[in-house]
Give the backbone structure.
Amino acid sequence: MSADLEFDSLQAMRDVQHFGEEGGVVPVIDVAATSTFLDPADMERAFRGEIEGCYLYSRHMNPTVTAFGKKLAAMEGAEAALGVASGMAAIACTLERLCQHGDHIVCSRSVYGGTYALLANVFPRRGIRVSFVDINDLAAVNAAFTPQTKVLYTEALSNPLLETADIPGLARIAHAQKAALVVDNTFTPLSMRPLHHGADVVVYSCTKYISGGSDMIAGAVVGKRDFVQSLVDVNHGPVMLGGAVMDARVAHELYLRLDHLPLRMEAHGRAAQFLAQKMKSIGVRVLYPGLEGHPGHALFRALGVHEFGFGGVVSIDCGSPDRARRLASLLQTEKFGLYAVSLGFSRTLMSCPSLSTSSEIPEAEQKAMGLNPALLRLSIGYTGRGETLWERFEKCWKTL
């Protein structure tokens, strides 16, 4: 995999320093809902957008949310980032800012179920058309564009099929058509850097790896400063006017957790690689980009940052939905993992995507995108001994 020597995400994050009110080594949590103006005229200027960086009201901007955004932007090598209420808020507000009635979006067919439902069920009611395509077929992607296309949307590593997006190729197509490339990088923070490869906007569900604790809901938008600031514009900003703001307490937690995100991502990737190889060795049908037989392996190696591996999610074909449920139940009983949606937790989380996180996608579309109802998705945690966990998995697999 290619380690980019021109930009060091870890050093960039480390070099972001904010001091507490009394000189503390971390910033304070500013929970004020509104801010004081010594001159009443300045408040009027703030509402007119004439004072840059002015704190007015926490639905507009908040110092703690700003601190988190600066650190996340540093990690991505971006001009700016904004924390929002959830990953879905990040997606919805980004696309709403980029599109209006009459516009068109080209979207990867293999996306998170909530994203699919938003684009297939909600956006058409706003007069925004969406075409779902095989994101690995660049000719089909290009053919799906119309003069009204404003956005090409994909996931860097798709949920749950783990398809690797050719971000440089997609960026060339989008930019040739005067459209923006938006990439959801939730599965691969640090190991993928979409902006470096030509993406215009990156969105995150911070609920997952960036949090790492499965104890909060949050999202983020990363990109050019003008675009990020437009999200909180007092007259047109979808975050400001839609109210999808991040709480200061959540921003403070995430600010602190970014420091150990590199250690966690490295550990997730190492554990997932070990288990995926072991599973393959006993004949389990495994989807994992770290395996040489995976269709996106070479592309991930070319685009990824080597030290963080190939992500922490492994999907396996259990043969039937009933066998997938039975295996998950056995694995939970044997304390291999927990049967729950979401991912990025310190412990392994398991779910059957076709019947849960992708259930919003119609059965025919699931079949077209290659989503097998027998698939069991494993978000591999990093706690515990790898060999012990493997012994538990192998025991359950043989029992099944």
User: Anything to note?
Assistant: Confidence is low (pLDDT under 50) at residues 1-5. The first strand starts at residue 80 and ends at 84. The two ends are 36 Å apart (CA to CA). The chain is about 35% helix and 15% strand.
